[in-house]
Write the structure tokens for this entry.
Amino acid sequence: MSTTATPKISQQRIARDLGLSQALVSMVLNGRTEGISEESYRRIWDHALGLGYQPKGMRAPSSGDATKQIHVGFILRAGLALHTQSNYFSHIQHGLHEALQERGISTLFLGTEDKLSETAFRSTIETRRSLFGVVVMGEVKPAFLKQIKQLCPRVVAVSISYPGQCHSVQSNENQSLDLLVEHLAELGHRRFAWLGGNRALMRHEDRYRAFRAALRSRDIAFDERWALLHDSADRIEGRQLAEQFLARKAARPTALVCYNGLMARGAINLLLARGVRIPEDLSVVAIDATRICTEEHPLLTAASADPEIMGRKTAELLLSASGAPDEIYLDAALPSRLTLRETTAAPAG
């Protein structure tokens, strides 16, 4: 694994910045906890992390006392839970966890938007006094984001952008859809269908808009009757929309573009069971780069940014965040990559 050089930040500078003795700063950053107040402990570590200081790999002290650790919390959008979240967010969490663990920082699940009250979150912060920042995974209501920032000013949003409110990390959706449509068009496909999930979320709107733009740029007309949408976006919803796809009486499209790999996999399994050959009768692609693409045959042709790299980028932005009112926020759109597998071919005939 390649590594990048980290600027040398001296303990003398940290002590000078905070108006503290170098001896105290040295004790905190070298693992001592006895006789040091919680306020001083957190203040020193917060400032050190914000500067990018990494003594001996940035290992936070392992005293066994949870309040003495440096933590980054993450929150899932409403409607998700740890046992029901998508592959996408689990891959992002893995990348985030690994990047932070290399610096001796732990990740902490704080809850979900619809079940995490301000009182519960405030209690968590008071218990975990060294909570450095928060990662919000998925689209949440602006009022909820504002509450989180008031309690913990360092925030990074994943898979959604809140311009002027916090840093964000996303996959380049326009590039993903352009790569997929270009591949299918080069194979000769002209009749497309869209399998959309989470239709109430901005993420779906961004992807559907990019899909339509990619078709227009190639002078390919789209029949909106073949935009099949659902409120959720898992395998079962993919199966349900595939049923609708088969029930339509109009001339059937030869290419199916799916909102994510979970929906694509559900649709493929249903279509194969009903005698549709993939890719001979129908090519199927998805916006995805998770394990769902390669867990079973046919392996899924897909395009997206690597979600584990997105997790690492999230850690990078969070550790560089100042939390200051005048902070300049960055919206990072990671490049997508097209991976050709077994679900695409030239249209029959």
The CA atoms of residues 227 and 307 lie 26 Å apart. The chain has a mean pLDDT of 87. The domain at 10-52 is CATH 1.10.260 (434 Repressor (Amino-terminal Domain)). The chain has three domains: 10-52, 62-171+308-334, 173-306.
